[in-house]
Design brief:
The chain contains 3 helices and 6 strands; from the N terminus they run E-E-E-E-H-E-H-H-E. It is an alpha+beta fold. The chain has a single domain, classed as Orthogonal Bundle (Arc Repressor Mutant, subunit A), CATH 1.10.10.
């Protein structure tokens, strides 16, 4: 089963060198994203499967085990989804629906 992820529009974000700080406008939760998390955040368009994002953006850039990278990426996306910062779905996500 494929997993698709999309950024929510209800987020404030600021880049700080290799990191990014994002805040949920729903509950004011703050996350500081490291370089790998920024790659996932930027690629989360709702149409690209998470496995493809991990393979093309994370494994291509960082020395990591693909299975571990995918598991960590999915956990990260689901944590953001709990705060309304990202949508996670088994189907492609039309960003106009967010």
């Amino acid at each position: 089963m494929s997993v698709y992820v999309a950024r929510s529009s209800a987020v404030a974000a600021r880049s700080l060198e290799d990191e990014m700080v994002i805040m949920s406008l729903r509950d004011s939760t703050l996350f500081t994203l490291n370089e790998a998390a920024v790659e996932i955040w930027q690629a989360a368009d709702g149409l690209t499967p998470l496995a493809e994002i991990v393979r093309n953006r994370i494994c291509a850039k960082f020395e990591t085990n693909p299975d571990t990278a995918y598991s960590d990426a999915e956990s990260f996306c689901r944590a953001l989804a709990e705060h309304g910062m990202m949508t996670v779905s088994s189907e492609p996500i039309e960003t106009s629906d967010l």
